[in-house]
Design goal:
Helices cover 32% and strands 34% of the residues. With 209 residues, the protein is of the alpha+beta class. The protein folds into 2 domains: 96 residues, no CATH class; 95 residues, no CATH class. The strands form 3 sheets. The chain has a 4-stranded antiparallel beta sheet.
C-alpha cells in the first residue's frame, strides 16, 4: 500500500536557502576531507552509508571497491555488486574463518570506524537540514505487504530540488500512532503530494506561488 498520504509536504525557497547552504559549507568540506583520507588509506572508490528509520546517511556502513581491485593474497567473498560511475563495484569480506580473513575484516572495519569517529560530528546535508529546522519525525505507515504483518517505517526526507540550489523540499510523516509531530517553521510552504512529485521529478517545473 502506498504511503504518500501519510506525509505532509513542504518547500522552502529564497535567500534563506543560500544562508543555510553557506552554513553547511564548512561541514561539507570536513566530510570531504575525511572521505578523501578514507579513499587514500583503504583503496575504496565509494562507500555505503547507514540509512533507515531516523538515520540520514551521516555515517559509513561499508566500503565499496572496484570489481577488479587487487586484495593481494587475501581471498574475498563478494557480498554485493553494484555499478558506480559506470563501473562495476563490490563490497567484500575476507573469505573463511582464518586468522588472515579475520585480520582483513578487522582492517576494513577499522577504516570505517576511524572515519565515523569524525563524521559523527559532521552530519550529512539531509541530517543537517532536519536538525536545523528541528523537523525530525519517525512514524509507522501502512503495511508493506512484503511480509505478513510488516509495517513501513517512515522518516522525514528532504533535499534540494534536482538542478535547483535555491529550493529545498521536505516530506514529513504524519503522526499515526501518537508519535511526536514536529512544528514546522513559518518559512515552510505546504504543498500537495502531486506538487511534491512534480517538483522532485521535473526540474523544469515552476515553484507554486
Amino acid at each position: 500500500m502506498s504511503n504518500e498520504k501519510n506525509y505532509k509536504y513542504y518547500l522552502v525557497t529564497g535567500p534563506e536557502v543560500a544562508q543555510i547552504d553557506a552554513r553547511y559549507d564548512a561541514i561539507g568540506a570536513k566530510r570531504k576531507e575525511v572521505e578523501e583520507k578514507l579513499t587514500a588509506a583503504s583503496g575504496c572508490v565509494a562507500w555505503a552509508t547507514q540509512s533507515g528509520w531516523g538515520e540520514y546517511g551521516s555515517l559509513i556502513s561499508e566500503l565499496v571497491f572496484l570489481a577488479d581491485h587487487d586484495f593481494g593474497r587475501q581471498p574475498v567473498t563478494i557480498k554485493k555488486t553494484h555499478y558506480f560511475n559506470g563501473k562495476k563495484v563490490i563490497t567484500v569480506r575476507g573469505r573463511g574463518r582464518t586468522t588472515d580473513a579475520r585480520a582483513f575484516n578487522a582492517k576494513l572495519s577499522g577504516f570505517v570506524a576511524e572515519a565515523n569517529k569524525v563524521l559523527k560530528d559532521y552530519p550529512s546535508y539531509q541530517e543537517f537540514l532536519i536538525n536545523h529546522y528541528d523537523v525530525k519525525c519517525c512514524a509507522k505507515g501502512e503495511s508493506s505487504h512484503a511480509r505478513f504483518g510488516s509495517i513501513c517505517m517512515l522518516s522525514t526526507n528532504c533535499g534540494h530540488l534536482p538542478d535547483d540550489d535555491k529550493t529545498i523540499i521536505f516530506a514529513i510523516p504524519k503522526s499515526q500512532h501518537g508519535e511526536d509531530q514536529p512544528t514546522v517553521p513559518p518559512s515552510f510552504k505546504e504543498i500537495t503530494y502531486g506538487q511534491f512529485f512534480d517538483l522532485s521529478n521535473k526540474p523544469e517545473e515552476t515553484i507554486p506561488a
